Amino acid sequence: MAALVSSLIVFSLMRAVPGDIVGQMLGQTSDPTATEALRGFFGLDRPLYAQFTEWLIDVLRGDLGRSWYQGQAVTSLVSEAFLVTLQIAVLTLIVSTLIGVPLGVLAGIAEGSKIDGLIRAFNLIGLSAPVFWVGLMLLVGASALFSWSPPFTYSSPSENLSDNFEIIILPILSLGALQAAAYSHFVRECMVSELRRDYIRAALAKGLSPAVVYFKHALRNILVPLVTFMGLILIQILGGTVVIESLFSIPGLGRLILSGIQGRDYPVVQGALLFVVFVAITVNFLVDAAYGLIDPRLRK
Amino acid sequence: MISRFWTTRLAALAFAGSLGTSVLAQPASDALIYGKTDAAARSGGKLTIGSLTEPPAMDPYHQAADARIRVTVLAYQGLFYESASGEPLPLLAESYSISADGRTYIFKLRKGVKFHTGQTMTSADVKYSYDYLRDPKNGSPGAGDLSTIDSIEAPDADTVIFKLNRRNGLLPITLTHRYGGVIPNGYFASPDARTRLNQTSVGTGPFKLKQFKPNSVLVFEKFADYWQKGLPHLDEVTFAFMPNSAAMVVAARNGRIDMGIFTRPQDAEQLAKAQGVRLVRTPSMGQKSLDLGAEHPLLKDERVRQAIALAIDKDAVMKASIAGYGQVIGTMVAGMQERWGLPLSEVPNQKVDLDRARKLLAEAGHPNGFEIDLTSIITYDWMDAAAVTIAEQLKRIGIKVNIKKIELGVWVRNFRSRQMGFTFNDWPTSPDPSLLYYRHFRAAPLGADFRNWNNAAASALLDQGLEESDYAKRRAIYNDFQKMLASSVPTIMMFSSDLLTVEGSRVQNHQQHPTGWYFGLAKTWVAK
Question: Is the terminal CB of chain B with fewer CB neighbours within 10 Å at N or C?
Fold first, then answer.
């Protein structure tokens, strides 16, 4: 149902944006015969409901159509671009988790200390800095300090692993640093709240070692909100790649959607956004499923 | 029937006379195609070019985007090549003749030309290509340029005859590279032919398409059977699409790209100081202008348009928006000023005259000025600074300007529906005044008259210019037209920004064409 509503919204929004592919193709020429010929070629001369119904029926059959510019199947364009984005998103998630969770736990345990202050400062900067700015600073900084820049011509890991690493390292660091700050902030708040609970005090009073209390009890109890947050972070990273892919010339899903919108390539934009909705629903489903694994009580 | 007959052989004799007999073996114009030949050139090597613009597709028949033309000129060829000075040099045509009434053109085709598909080019291919292009039902943006063609015949394998419905002196320059190019007979019969052009090129150009990965790279490789022996020098050319100039500056500084055309002067200036790169400035065929659509209730009055023109200091606008990296123009783009432009001193309404501007406004019933929206296009950086400068300049005569930024698609829709109002424009042209003016300013139905100028006298001059083939007579006609244009002010052509090409030290003999199209790569070579 969510996918159907989303598809209708996406379809309507694209048609509501002024201009179409015919205008983009003909540029400053305005021959009415050529205009009509192209409108007919792309099916834009048919009523909107007919265009939507036909597209929806094709989607239900698993066919997202073909790019009006490239002629390539949208499913193939989207899957190629998604793999690129997924690689960045997953690695960013790993980097941000590895940095953000320990920092958040540490800040929560050391609440009110200088370490907590430093980590909170990092969180604040990370939460307020735009990803475009961070990416640009890393790009310019790497050039100024090391006379190095990414190659800007994308290679997949299977084509050339070292080139792939060179092109994705800065995007991952840019997105990863910001998401680590968000993670750290969230984990700190959870830890602080958890460590103030009675059972923690009781455990410490009984003589359990702080390490056991913090990591075995407190950390385990914040895993459910943490996994929820991880799902949100993953969706946020997928959204953030629109900007970062544009900055680093990476042919991912974000850039595919952006160029589709600019060129009014309706099948690509509709197909790609529908796919994004599908991914968001899937991630939420997986998060819900993970609750049961973390806390068996929730299976009931 | 035939009054004149030029062959490139005659041109060769004249050229050889000035350069020495060694050129005799080769027609003169051949040596000038794609720029000057470098005797020291070596073959081999690859070049990576950073590009801030990306072609939406590689189809030269159905895509008007300048970003597409820039690169497809490497793979597709017309009957003529538009030289940097604006003359049409025979390319796939070897020679041509014109009938006395100017309505029949006979083209003799070059022999031994092969397509990237391996087929040999014949007159049937030429006939098919231009017949397809000129039929508006095929939806090509180039159809309007060929509307004077009545029929095309191919009496033998090496001859093509174009019969016209009216005289058209600029037919040769129209049969160049903006749209189309000669492709194999019947190519578009296949339903997926258009989109297949993104994977395989089918032209006759010096490079053939190797790979096009949208949002990433475009790769051309040397066409081994290219008809100009010894060309191209490069084995491969890769265009890396850069979504922003900051990335391109960093890439050029660190040697990730060998070359790139920059649009923001501040970026090019930064690189000009870097080691191992050089900045090359080339006057362009582009123009940054202000359009004044007569459908606007205020701008329909010629006196209002003249007042605006008299209040605008073009030089100040140019310095504010592109840091002076360009040339102030009157009514002709910088790249064609020498051959076709009216001297700036003779162009009306070019000098700032605020008193006269105020007087004109008062006569038009606006003694206290008025308020007007000025639209600029999002992502066209130069328009931001220009808009603020113009708003300040027009404030001096009581005009309050509200700057409105709109997306390109919205702007194109307004433009094509002739609802331009008061807006910035940024457009390139092919090197002929008729191609520059006709569609834009000729009244409908023969022209599009986007600014609703509806000027019968100007339209008559444009028709004369189209039909005349004598250069001196054409120049006189276009001089009169330019005076009319500057006097009535349907548009204010402000300046042409220079093409700012940054080249690494490996790059040799790259000659930037004033259109910004990459013709020059055919004769570019890389040092070891």
Answer: C
